[in-house]
Design a protein that fits this description.
Elements (H helix, E strand, L loop, with lengths): L1 H17 L21 E5 L19 E3 L2 E2 L14 E7 L3 E9 L14 E7 L29 E7 L9 E2 L2 H5 L10 E8 L2 E4 L16 E6 L23 E9 L17 E9 L13 E2 L5 E5 L3 H39 L15
Parallel strand pairs: 1-4, 1-15
Antiparallel strand pairs: 2-4, 3-14, 4-5, 5-12, 6-7, 6-13, 7-9, 8-11, 9-10, 11-12, 13-14, 13-15
Length: 364
């Protein structure tokens, strides 16, 4: 009985951690000037990164920089003052990897998520799912479900670091995945889906009942550049650094390109294909706790996510390698031919040395 009640209890806890959305109302009519140049590209770079929150292994990956503006009022006058957000992505043919970095003075309050920075990724699932209103289903809280809001599904990953140790891995784990839902009781790196801000659930849970086939497919870790310890933190080291230190937050994530989802709750990535995504960031500005709808976003609409196949890179590099080998071989042949010519010329045209003539009889 307790096992069946546990996902419901954790859903309530997670809802509080993510923040209440009752105030998720725009101040006026929604408008967005789409930027056709905005995009994120995930290159094919196998065996390059380890999900530990550190950015060192991402140094050769191009990042895509975005200003952070309030999601409900994307006015540049209200931009996040700490700086822009850089988003990097790659894949290894099996998993997709994301690095999100944003400048910010270090703040951390153990056990109080809304007094710590937080980040979320959102992806389009349903073809009718809009960025605005988190899927854009017109149904209310009491009538939204997988039938009335079909086609408006969005996939989300939300990481609140208030109970997460820097550099440690959180997200999908055997204990929570055994119960068949998208929670994370250890670090609150959770796997969700939604039709609207008011109809948002952990994977496997929903208004039509729970389905124990779901799981949390995400893994992730966080770090801050002000940390002086790199050998590893434990919980007793909290708060890990002094508040107010200048630096950069790093949030690193991974999940399979394709998941075992059969409930239309996960976005599915295709090599060589394109998806739509967004990134949100919460920060306790001036030490004030953030609330659920008080987040910044990288854009006021979906941003294309291109999953590169790597074929173009391989095709371009192959002739280059072949040409280098051919050139080297030709150079060796040229040098060998030159040496042989010099040697033959020397043997043909040198003046022979002949000693004085002596008869045989003179030596007998």
């Amino acid at each position: 009985m307790l096992r069946h009640l546990l996902p419901l209890l954790l859903l309530l806890l997670c809802s509080n951690s993510i923040g209440r959305v009752s105030s998720h109302q725009e101040s006026g009519e929604w408008s967005c000037d789409a930027d056709s140049e905005n995009q994120v590209e995930a290159e094919f770079r196998p065996g390059l990164v380890t999900v530990d929150g550190h950015a060192d292994d991402w140094k050769d990956i191009d990042g895509f920089e975005f200003p952070l503006r309030p999601a409900l009022d994307p006015d540049e006058d209200h931009e996040y003052k700490g700086g822009k957000m850089t988003v990097k992505a790659l894949h290894d043919g099996h998993d997709a990897f994301f690095m999100v970095q944003v400048d910010g003075d270090y703040v951390y309050s153990k056990g109080t998520s809304n007094k710590c920075p937080s980040v979320a990724l959102m992806f389009q699932i349903g073809e009718s799912a809009t960025y605005h209103n988190m899927g854009g289903c017109s149904e209310g809280r009491d009538t939204c479900n997988n039938k009335s809001c079909k086609g408006h599904e969005v996939d989300m990953m939300h990481f609140s670091i208030g109970n997460a140790i820097p550099g440690r891995l959180y997200g999908g784990n055997p204990i929570d995945n055994r119960d068949g839902y998208g929670g994370d009781r250890f670090g609150h790196l959770v796997d969700l889906y939604a039709w609207t801000p008011h109809c948002r659930y952990l994977d496997g849970l929903g208004p039509s009942g729970n389905d124990t086939s779901a799981q949390n497919d995400w893994k992730g870790a966080w770090w801050h550049s002000s940390f002086t310890t790199h050998s590893g933190f434990i919980e007793e080291d909290s708060p890990y650094a002094s508040d107010g230190k200048k630096g950069t937050y790093y949030f690193e994530f991974s999940r399979p390109l394709r998941t075992m989802d059969r409930l239309q709750q996960d976005a599915q990535f295709t090599i060589g294909g394109s998806s739509k995504m967004s990134v949100a960031f919460w920060y306790p500005v001036d030490g004030q706790p953030w609330h659920g709808s008080g987040h910044y976003s990288i854009h006021c609409d979906w941003v294309p996510l291109e999953i590169s196949s790597g074929n173009s890179k391989l095709t371009k590099s192959a002739p280059s390698v072949s040409a280098n080998v051919s050139s080297a071989f030709a150079l060796v042949l040229s040098v060998a031919s030159l040496c042989l010519s010099v040697f033959v010329g020397y043997m043909l045209f040198r003046t022979p040395t002949v000693g004085p003539y002596t008869t045989m009889d003179g030596n007998l």
